[in-house]
Predict the structure.
Amino acid sequence: MKKRLILGLLVLVACLGMGWGQTSPAIAASKRVLIVYDAINPTVDGQKKLAGLQQILASAGVATQTERLSDYHAGQLTTKAYAGVVTLINWPQGDLKNAAFTRDRAAFTGKKLHIGQGLSAVEAHELHAVRRNVYHQQLILSAEGQQQLLPFSEDITLLKTQGKTHRYGTLRPQNQGIGHYPYGTVVGQRGIYRTLRRVVSVRF
């Protein structure tokens, strides 16, 4: 199941603007993807997630640059320098912020992918979705004909998508009365892919 989730991430990367890895060598040399992560957080294998993400993008032929959120400086994320940006959240409870990155990411017109919790209202709006907080639930992930019971979560924000979106996988709370939610969502050049604690422990 973990390998299938990794494949799902590749699908989402491919769906973002019909593929980040399909650029010419000249464009690839000048256009990279900026990975911005909040924290390593070893309790959720943050280093492995970051390394796995880098490997996934590299396998798709995408050049990357990695930056810790606290080290990001204003004006760094531009379409002249980057074709896309990936936000990796390893420690949602830390609620770490960088106002310069938030502003630059909102204004950025390239491809955007958010991985993990902590999706802002602005990001949800870009995905034609509304956020919904779910408390004290154990979610069931269904993807490609398989199911996996995810670790218990005290507080998790899910997305209710509206309109035309590309969805990967389904999250279904054990409480049947609160509906189903996508595991991954892509709208145009924006996307979100969830790593819930230890569920996607990326290993190659």
About this structure: The CA atoms of residues 105 and 153 lie 28 Å apart. The mean pLDDT is 78. Residues 2-15 form the longest helix (14 residues).
